[in-house]
């Protein structure tokens, strides 16, 4: 119970950034109508978000221990509160770019700090992988909530209306609440700071320590796993609202709401994974999930052909495939938190910030790559072809996961200060 308040704070931080980060799919759809932006040009918003995450993580992650996990999270929450308050009065395509750059920089600080803090508030590996899965499932609840919040501000009758920018007042309020909760919550970072002081002496040592992790075979394979997983997830998640609107002919608000099924299925999948992974081998679960996801793509995408050319405005008229395809989230859900937990569980706590930085960097690169490729395929060859594209990285991911499992014993858990389990 002593860690309950900080755990609630971590969950709320993730909830706020879940809404902001994953609104990119909604914003991509909206800016096409508001500002006459092409699909290829709109995909730059994903790069604004992910590249800022990657660059910030690469430059700052190894210093987060020195800055302090709590202090880093407070800075991030303050930044997003400010940018959200600015958005309604500065609504433009340029302002959306600035928004996602700010959100990306802030999330890099949040994710590295949250992932690192998990090692301080869990007692062993099983608790770590379970809490990681629950945290990621709550992230998806945030994504789902964001879909409904944004859809409430979209004006279907006036596609060029920018009234939806007012949603950022609500998001600024949520971020401010998260800031106050964290500010009033105690987080004991003394053990990890003490271990850090004993191991390294300079900031250059911190940075080189992160780079040295990359030469470990297990870390290299993990990076590939994270890259291809996020490539798959973001190629679907960022373009599902546009797919719903352009291919399935749903109205703008319905397109956003139906995309929420993907978020809900990922949230449910990660919650269930938090239970399953306590009893089953993670490789069996994850490979089974990837195969199931590929099968769902092959079954559902062909059903999207020949949809009515008239716009669908009522939920009762929505075709069944709009409900079925987003269920792919159930199968994608367990992969990311599980592989993250595996790699973090094999490192001492004072290495978690550096490893979390690498996680964020390569996840961001995967997200940007997937979204830009999908956006351009969508623009030139249509939505069905764009979503078939996800099958290729799924095959690669299965191969990489098998190699990851085989390499895992080569990097045994290293005890950290005050915890023989490596957390």
Describe this structure in words.
The protein is mainly α. It has a single domain, classed as Growth Hormone, Chain: A, CATH 1.20.1250. The protein is 74% helix and 0% strand. The longest helix is centred in the last third of the chain and has 30 residues, at 352-381.
Question: How would you sum up this structure in a few lines?
Answer:
By secondary structure, this protein is mainly α.
CATH level 1 class label: Mainly Alpha
What shape does the CA trace take? globular
Over the alpha carbons, how many angstroms does the gyration radius reach? 21 Å
Number of domains: 1
Order of helices and strands: HHHHHHHHHHHHHHHHHHHHH
CATH-assigned homologous superfamily: MFS general substrate transporter like domains
The fraction of residues in strands falls at under 5%
Structural class: mainly alpha
Low-confidence stretches: 410-423
User: What composes the largest sheet?
Assistant: none
Kindly state the number of beta strands.
Answer: 0
Helix share, percent: over 70%
CATH architecture title: Up-down Bundle
CATH topology: Growth Hormone, Chain: A
Separate helix tally = 21
Overall pLDDT score? 84
Instruction: Calculate the terminal CA-CA distance, rounded to whole Å.
Output: 18 Å
């Amino acid at each position: 119970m002593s860690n309950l308040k900080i755990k609630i704070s971590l969950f709320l931080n993730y909830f706020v950034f879940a809404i902001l980060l994953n609104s990119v799919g909604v914003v991509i759809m909206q800016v096409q109508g508001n500002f006459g932006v092409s699909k290829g040009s709109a995909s730059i918003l994903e790069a604004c978000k992910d590249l800022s995450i990657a660059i910030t993580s690469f430059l700052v992650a190894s210093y987060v221990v020195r800055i302090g996990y709590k202090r880093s999270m407070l800075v991030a929450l303050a930044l997003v509160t400010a940018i959200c308050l600015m958005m309604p009065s500065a609504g433009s395509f340029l302002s959306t770019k600035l928004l996602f750059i700010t959100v990306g920089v802030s999330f890099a600080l949040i994710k590295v700090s949250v992932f690192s803090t998990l090692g301080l508030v869990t007692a062993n590996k099983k608790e770590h992988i379970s809490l990681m899965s629950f945290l990621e499932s709550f992230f998806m609840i945030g994504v789902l909530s964001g879909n409904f919040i944004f859809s409430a501000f979209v004006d279907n009758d006036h596609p060029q209306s920018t009234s939806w920018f007012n949603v950022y007042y609500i998001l600024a309020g949520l971020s401010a609440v998260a800031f106050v909760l964290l500010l009033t919550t105690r987080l004991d970072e003394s053990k990890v700071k003490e271990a850090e002081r004993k191991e390294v002496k300079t900031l250059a040592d911190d940075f080189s320590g992160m780079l040295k992790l990359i030469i470990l075979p297990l870390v290299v394979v993990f990076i590939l796993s994270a890259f291809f997983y996020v490539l798959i997830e973001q190629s679907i998640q960022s373009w599902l609202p546009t797919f719903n609107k352009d291919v399935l002919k749903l109205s703008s608000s319905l397109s956003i709401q139906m995309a929420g099924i993907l978020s809900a299925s990922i949230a449910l999948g990660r919650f269930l994974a938090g239970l399953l992974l306590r009893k089953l081998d993670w490789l069996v679960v994850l490979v089974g999930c990837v195969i199931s996801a590929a099968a769902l793509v092959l079954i559902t995408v062909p059903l999207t052909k020949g949809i009515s050319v008239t716009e669908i405005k009522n939920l009762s008229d929505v075709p069944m495939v709009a409900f079925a395809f987003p269920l792919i989230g159930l199968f994608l859900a367990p992969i990311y938190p599980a592989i993250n937990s595996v790699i973090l569980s094999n490192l001492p706590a004072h290495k978690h910030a550096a490893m979390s930085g690498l996680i964020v960097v390569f996840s961001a690169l995967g997200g940007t790559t997937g979204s830009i490729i999908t956006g351009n395929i969508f623009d030139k060859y249509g939505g069905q072809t764009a979503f078939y594209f996800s099958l290729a990285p799924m095959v690669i991911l299965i191969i990489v996961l098998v190699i990851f499992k085989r390499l895992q014993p080569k990097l045994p858990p290293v005890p950290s200060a005050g915890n023989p389990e490596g957390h």
